[in-house]
Amino acid sequence: MLLGFHVSIVGSIDVAVDRAIKMDCTTFQIFTRNPRGWKFTDLDEEEVNVFVKKCEEQGYQYPAVHMPYLPNLASSNDENYSRSVLTLTAELERCDALHIPYLVTHLGSHLGRGEMFGLKRIIEACNHALSQVNNEVMILLENTAGTRNSVGSKFENLRYVLDNVEPDRQIGICFDTSHAFAAGYDLRNSEDVDRSMSLLDDIIGLDKVKVVHLNDSKGVFNSHSDRHDHIGLGYIGEDGFRAFLKHKLAKTRPLVMETPVDSRCDDMGNLKKVRELADES
Q1: Is 36 one of the catalytic residues?
Q2: Which domains does the chain have, with CATH numbers?
Q3: 61 has pLDDT over 90
Q4: Contact 95/65 with Cβ under 8 angstroms?
Q5: Contact at 8 Å (CB) between 69 and 48?
Q6: Choosing from 6, 106, 230, 253, which is the catalytic residue?
């Protein structure tokens, strides 16, 4: 099972690999720079070489990069949108330098302009960014919880974007369990998991799902609340994750946790819980 966390790059980007190793991860996800600002510096060539070497030595074949927080690919604000597209392009190039195959991005918010407006902006952003780079890095669209004005909570929305981005080999999906549950795709037991995964397969195709964000939900079912919880301690619960981990998607894709760290549980506790539930499934 490919299982890990979003890990910090504080210090230098190659140290992220050391942190993943220390936590006994078999996959991981990173930001390539400070995720809370627009400005960034070029990657250090020596750090990049060490990062790539460490990944090769540990057999990390499918790490992922997550886009920073500020970009909004569905934005109706032209200045923000232009900066967002430039960031997407730069992150594709940084992924390639790091030999990372996947760039995960939220679809963003249409800021009141409507769902279709947002979807078309996302398509234009992806098409432009992919046309500016010469690599095989895949953009992975992350399904959302359906918060106000957000785009991408419905499988049909994701399918629409997939159908309109070229080349299609460079566009896929990152499936977030917490977001799906909050958006109305139930995952609380084996029947719910089978039903929701069948919808995912019918509408999008499981072959398009390249990474899974494995998170429980602090929000109730169909709440549209984007709040992650510890595995088994949220509203999806242990039965839901036991069923999900039995599904072929969980057995064949990198599973990345973005769970909190608090007095109830830490990263190692979540890692242990997932492995326990997988063994029981």
Answers
A1: yes
A2: 3-280 (3.20.20.150)
A3: no
A4: yes
A5: no
A6: 106
